[in-house]
Design goal:
about 375 residues; elongated; binds iron/sulfur cluster; alpha/beta; 5-stranded mixed beta sheet
Length: about 375
């Protein structure tokens, strides 16, 4: 009879239009991309490019830079040219910087409808310039800067208010035949945010940029984002994600990648399957898991490594992994594909696992199994 097929993903992706942010396709059948935002002054070109290089190394695919002043706008051309990944200019308040960003060769521009004064009059010109340059626009609605008219109408930043703001803004662009748009409707409350994106997903086919705004420090922000993105991505909603943390942006990228890997929206790379430890543990599981993680960091092959605290459940739990260890009596049983291949003293567990992992990685690379 066999086992029923386990779905590898929780849902089909929502069908969205596809836009092109520089070299990265967003929406349609393009993989969900991970983005972040620099924290440097954009006018400090060296520091900004340095941070973009770090973000690129951490797996960031699209980077956004703030553009609050003329000096920042003046820096965009060099940054856009030298960045290894597409650069999006983030514009509040001044439409003139939207034109500057398009001229500077930015891959996209983010505008905040609630914040751009006299924006309505400028839409036609912006649509014309963006269209001529092939530059998409992100309509980025934020609960904290919602249009006053909508705040009055709804009393606060409800999902309906966020969505109405975004779709109204999109309609202004549509009037000029411009549909090269992606949308975000961010809120700091994951429940409001999830409901806003669900509503938005029903009402349009634009690609959606997910974000929980002001999610907080790393621990809280990671959980809020994982819960909110998880709920939406599990329903197939979301084409690109930005985790917002009060932490270095490379941390946001790590969290974003991990969320996508957890949902099989991206091939998993190194995955440590470690037990929580319990009264049966005969080794310090936390320390061992940390040492194995550190030793294998940066491996690019999809490898599941099980770290189990005892031999009671260890071998069974490790069987699904590519490689594993079950500890007991000062020794570690090393497993490859569920078979014990050797038993080593506790002090040799980490180096043996690393050695075996490298052997498996080599075989995988030879077989072309790369992430
Ligand atoms: Fe406890 Fe052993 Fe399971 Fe770890 S593998 S949780 S030590 S029973």
């Amino acid at each position: 009879l066999g086992m029923p097929d386990v779905p590898t993903r929780l849902a089909d992706r929502r069908k969205s239009r596809q836009i092109q942010v520089g070299s990265v396709a967003v929406g349609g059948d393009a993989p969900v991309s991970v983005q972040s935002m620099t924290t440097t002054r954009t006018s400090d070109i060296g520091a900004t490019l340095q941070q973009i290089a770090e973000l690129t190394a951490s797996g960031c695919q699209i980077v956004r830079v703030a553009c609050p002043t003329q000096d920042d706008a003046d820096a965009l051309a060099t940054i856009a040219r030298k960045s290894q990944i597409p650069v999006i200019a983030d514009i509040h308040f001044q439409p003139k910087y939207v034109f500057a960003a398009i001229d500077a060769g930015c891959a996209a521009v983010r505008v905040n409808p609630g914040n751009i004064k006299q924006f309505d009059d400028k839409v036609k010109e912006i649509a014309k310039a963006a269209s001529a340059a092939g530059v998409p626009i992100r309509i980025g609605v934020n609960a904290g800067s919602l249009d006053r008219r909508l705040l009055e109408k709804y009393g606060k930043a409800t999902p309906e208010a966020l969505v109405e703001s975004a779709l109204w803004e999109a309609s202004l662009f549509e009037e000029h035949g411009f549909r090269d748009i992606k949308i975000s409707v961010k809120h700091n409350d994951p429940v409001v945010m999830v409901n806003a994106y669900r509503l938005l997903a029903q009402k349009c086919d634009y690609p959606l940029h997910l974000g929980v705004t002001e999610a907080g420090p790393a621990f809280q922000g990671t959980i809020k984002s994982a819960v909110a993105f998880g709920a939406l991505l599990a329903e197939g909603i979301g084409d690109t994600i930005r985790v917002s943390l009060s932490a270095p942006p490379a941390e946001e990228v790590k969290v974003g990648i991990q969320i996508l890997e957890s949902l099989n929206l991206r091939q998993r790379r190194l995955e440590i399957v470690s037990c929580p430890s319990c009264g049966r543990a005969q080794v310090d599981v936390y320390k061992l898991a940390d040492e194995v993680s550190a030793g294998l960091e940066g491996m690019e092959v999809p490898l599941r490594v099980a770290v189990m605290g005892c031999v009671v459940n260890g071998p069974g739990e490790a069987r699904e992994a590519d490689l594993g260890v079950a500890s007991g009596n000062g020794k570690g049983q090393i497993f490859v594909k569920g078979e014990v291949i050797k038993t080593v003293p506790e002090s040799k567990i980490v180096e043996t696992l690393i050695e075996e992992a490298l052997k498996i990685a080599e075989t995988m690379q030879a077989d072309g199994v790369m992430s």
